[in-house]
Design brief:
Structural class: alpha/beta
CATH architecture: Alpha-Beta Complex
Order of helices and strands: HEHEEHEHEEHHHEHEHEHHE
Number of helices: 11
CATH class: Alpha Beta
CATH topology: 2-enoyl-CoA Hydratase, Chain A, domain 1
């Protein structure tokens, strides 16, 4: 009888925990006040850190830009860039809002708006930067790690069974062949051309001008304005005034920001599991393998910074 009672208690406790986790997961999907905009407003959004996933940013921009009371969008950028695909997705959605919904968009550059973040910014009507903001870095980078000697030292042998000659291209356990280098270089050249085309079109600059400065260099905000890669110098308040006037709401418009998502219970549990992510992160930082093999629109030296 005693064992049966303990068993019942254990089962009941288990189900209570499952119910609590489920409730937390469901509640995390509800954002308080989302969608409620009382007066004509400017939608304010932030693009921070290394861009690896565009889903939430694009979703919020798509959702709120269509609201009747949203008359313009102000995007505050503090990012050194990131992966090619997500950067292009953000650019495309910004451009879509301008072209299809016909609402003005202004970008305000904080410390840095470089490479993939700058790619996204050129989709806006205007780019406003502080004199010392870091912009530009028009280019593509793809890093690989050759750990062949490390594997030999550790007496570890790696084997691959593959369906084609390029299926393991970029593997970290051997040197890259000339043919593989050519393959990746052609890929880099293609997405580089896409970047330059977006800058030329968005900034209304000739391709000759873009080509001259599309060598990975970073501009200060002051130089960017001088060369035509940004529109004017100014702070976030200045950018708010500009978007207010463009949208017809005046120099001091009311603003609306998308509510932040509550942390998911499952995310919390995953993050806290035996410190696994901390260990993996430390190894990635030491070997610089975190973004290995991923084509990046990323500012030089940005892999060592979090920009959070």
């Amino acid at each position: 009888m005693k064992y049966l009672k303990n068993f019942v208690v254990i089962i009941a406790t288990f189900f209570i925990v499952i119910i609590l986790i489920s409730i937390g997961s469901v509640m995390s999907k509800f954002e308080p006040g989302s969608g409620r905009i009382d007066k004509d407003s400017i939608l304010t959004m932030e693009l921070n850190g290394v861009i690896l996933d565009s889903k939430r940013f694009v979703s919020n921009l798509h959702k709120y830009s269509k609201k009747d009371k949203i008359k313009g969008i102000l995007i505050r950028i503090n990012s050194p860039g990131g992966a090619v695909g997500p950067s292009q997705e953000i650019y495309s959605e910004i451009k879509r809002v301008r072209d299809e919904i016909k609402k003005p968009i202004v970008v305000s550059c904080a410390s840095v708006a470089a490479s993939g973040a700058y790619y996204a910014a050129v989709g806006a009507d205007q780019i406003i930067a502080n004199p010392g903001s870091m912009l530009g870095s028009i280019g593509v980078i793809m890093e690989f790690a050759n750990l062949e000697n490390l594997y030999q030292w550790a007496k570890v042998q790696r084997y691959v069974i593959k369906s084609g000659p390029y299926k393991d291209a970029g593997s970290e356990f051997r040197k890259m062949t000339p043919e593989e280098k050519e393959l990746f270089q052609n890929m880099i050249n293609e997405v580089f051309a896409q970047f330059k085309q977006a800058v030329s079109k968005g900034r209304k600059l000739s391709m000759d001008v873009v080509d001259k400065y599309a060598d990975g260099r970073v501009f200060t905000g002051q130089t960017a304005v001088k060369l035509g890669f940004a529109d004017q110098l100014g702070s976030y308040r200045d950018a708010l005034r500009v978007i207010g006037e463009l949208s017809g709401l005046g120099a001091d418009p009311k603003t609306f920001s998308p509510p932040k998502k509550r942390p998911d219970v499952f995310d919390f549990l995953a993050e806290s599991k035996f410190g696994k992510k901390d260990i993996e992160g430390a190894i990635e930082n030491i070997l610089h393998t975190k973004y290995s093999g991923i084509p990046m629109y990323l500012m030089p030296g940005a892999l060592g910074n979090s920009y959070k």
